[in-house]
Amino acid sequence: MKKIFINHTLFRLLVPPFYGALVYLLILLVNNNVAQISEIFTGQEVYVCIGLSYLLSETLRLNVKLAEKLTDDQTTALSRIILQTLSGLILSVIVISLTISAYFTYILQFSITETQLIIFNSIFAVSSLLYNLLYFSNYYLYRQNLSRLETEKMLTENLEIELGQFKNEVNPKLLYDSLETLITLIHKNNEEAEDYIDHLSLVYRYILSHRKIELSSLDEEIKAANNITHLLNYQYDNTITFKANIPPDHLHLPMVPGSLPGLVESIIRSTIINKFNPLIIELAIEETDGYLILSNKLNDRLIVDSNRKEVVNNLQRSYSYFSEKPVVQVKAYNINYIKIPILELAEEKLAV
């Protein structure tokens, strides 16, 4: 894993010299008589400590790679830590003992004492423990962050799937009702039937053309809602009115495709509508709070269409992909309000 610090080139090059110099100072401090130790282990020997640090660092790095190969996903974290730590300590003792003994024997021309060997092995054994401690802290932090990223990725993918389902959904009830109305119109008035077919084709053309589009405009959504209203008005004797009180300079605002027509249809199917109780659905903008507000007078049917709640929930999930603001439905003073967040796209997103 390239994200683990022991694999970084800068760590492998810069840390051993610093740590080697620190080890040299520790060796001097361990011996009470600094003057005496300097006669045996002179200042130039700091390079030996740096060399030992390089050697031990690369040895422990190879030990980590070996531990990764010997363990799998079924191996517990504790087993992995114990295995890698113990093998690191053993390798540390072997490498340091052989290397420092060879240095004293072949370079200084006398054997290293047992005390000196213990000092070197003790310091570098602690170094091995610190190395593994830093590795495991970094390793499990990396895995935790990676797990969170994967979780976020899965949530994003699920939202994208739900968004796609919301946009691509073809309402079978609307289709069947439209076909039944069309059959009646064909026998009654051919011109009205042609007009009805035109609006029906616009509705489904909008659905099909926006299947692979993330966002449409408010203007397109209003037109789609008007087409839905036009189709359903044939069943309710033109007692449905959809009013969009939106300034022209706001018609470009982005929206999730299918938002307005889906909500308008669900409101119509959940409301008692007749010539004595016409339905007026109004769309307004509330720039202060950043919401589009769809409102209508409450006159719910005794059995409310279950699809109404589902439409709002699907809309909520779809908008959560683009905005932190929720889709809100409120009933107050005999009025039903559905608040849709106004989407604001960053310029860099548009550039993509």
From TrEMBL:
Stored InterPro entries: Bact_2-comp_sensor_kinase, Sig_transdc_His_kin_internal
Superkingdom field: Bacteria
One CC-aspect GO term: membrane
Transmembrane segments: 9-29, 81-106, 118-141
Keywords: Kinase, Membrane, Transferase, Transmembrane, Transmembrane helix
Coiled coil: none
UniProt-recorded Gene Ontology molecular function terms: phosphorelay sensor kinase activity
Residue ranges of domain Signal transduction histidine kinase internal region in the record: 162-238
Stated name of the protein: Putative two-component system sensor protein histidine kinase
Organism of derivation: Fulvivirga imtechensis AK7
